[in-house]
Amino acid sequence: MLHLFNTLTGKREPFEPLNPPMVGMYVCGVTVYDYCHVGHARNALVFDVLRRYLEYSGYTVRFVKNFTDVDDKIIARAREQGVPCEAITSRFIEAYYEDMDRLGIRRATEEPKATEHIEDIIRLTEVLIDKGLAYVVDGDVYFNVATYPPYGRLSKRRLEDLQAGARVEVDERKRHPMDFALWKHSKPGEPSWLSPWGPGRPGWHIECSAMSIKHLGETFDIHGGGMDLIFPHHENEIAQSCGATGKEFARFWVHNGFVQVNQEKMSKSLGNFFTIREIFAKSEWPEPVTGEVLRYFLLSTQYRGPVDFSDQALKEAKNALNGFYDLFERLKEPNDTATQGDGDINGVIERARMSFVRAMDDDLNTPMAIAALQGLRGEINKLLASGLSNQGRTQARQAFRTMGKVLGLFQLEAWQFGASFSGLPGHHAAHEREGGASGPTRLSDDEIERLVKERGEARQRKDFKKADEIRRKLSSLGIIIEDKPDGTSRWKR
RNA sequence: GGCGCCGUACCCAAGUGGUAAGGGAGCAGUCUGCAAAACUGCGAUGCGGCGGUUCGAACCCGCCCGGCGCCUCCA
Q1: What pLDDT, on the 0 to 100 scale, is given for residue A20?
Q2: Smallest CA–C1' separation from A362: which nucleotide?
Q3: 20 to 30 A Cα–Cα from A169, which one of A85, A357, A469, A483?
């Protein structure tokens, strides 16, 4: 059974959905005013994997992930560029999909936008006012934290502590410094909707309450997001939602850790971030390979811990993945002579599956799950050496495909090796090698085939000088040749 | 000031009371015309430091050192 670390209780708890086999999961999506960086990728990936694993475990997941498409930063960006907000949001939503598609992040079942739920937001705000939990000042509506005693239970903070450390200038009109806006009156030129309190727009936190309740009901199973959302965003969501409904809101709160660069949080203000598209643009690996390398890299750390992003880390992920695809390549080659019992392939696969499930059940321990797959790789390699039938080969490949699917790995048909990776884009000057006159020249498959064939003929003539010359030439272009026992060769990039 | 996280081999990373998984890199061997891949072997008497609890601690407690995060928009 799946156990998840629940931020609300601070403990690892057995996960049981409210209405099995349905699981309702809401994850805070991005504010669409800029390109996504690796931190966003990790967040999206963690919940993509959680969703996949829940499905693997037999649940039906209703997965809601929002777009925040009305917000101060969007307004500022639109103003900078002299375009309407919609121009900004539609552009970055499109970019978001491009990036996430390349990472193999599946679409959520619902992807609501804040601007499409203004009615729901207004209704929820009215309820809070009616219940005396919110108040109106000059066209703004604030949530009154003092009227909600459990405030702070998610982030384990006390209101007094918050006051003590508040670095923000206190708005005189607020009754309590920690009161937060549910509705903001709009200034001229800002996006605005009619409301009982005059023209305005929603505050940030209320949209997630409104949308999650609308799509998943007042109480649902899992609410996720980055660690940095615990306070104040999720704390406020709980206050609003529980305040309005009088019921439990999300039952499990799941938060992913940060992507770091040199031990520091990757963030805009530090300028140490890499956008997803930069990485793809700079990578010399084929796009699907780069996507899988990023996934493998991000999943090689448990989701709650920090993960340090670096050029070297990506290379290590690539190398580790090479071993799997190298095996898959050999599994593809038919073996018409092997007729014996395939050893204990069923047992080997079954044991790997059990380790895999045990790891994933343990708060999504993906590094351990990957270790299980590595173990299986070793076992299958051994079986392969002793002669694995075509059926056994198919069975093995299928096992990798099935478990890999949960992590979004091992789904590719072709994996091209070897192209050198020139380093991360921008940022570290040291990584920017000029790399001589030209990088690895791209040879077409036909050209490579021709050279490999030529070398094969040379080998047959025992003209090893010639054969090695060709191999060196290909090698210098990033192409590696592996000779098979039958005299033919396979090659890889 | 408040709340919290992290520190395991060259690198990445599991392990949260029973005697250090896994991967990458490296080295050696087998195989190979030579390679590559694969396989086999090697690699932390020790888990930031010092104390304590315990039959037993990387895991629990205390103190200290180093790094980071949140408390303001942030995945």
Answers
A1: 95
A2: B14
A3: A85
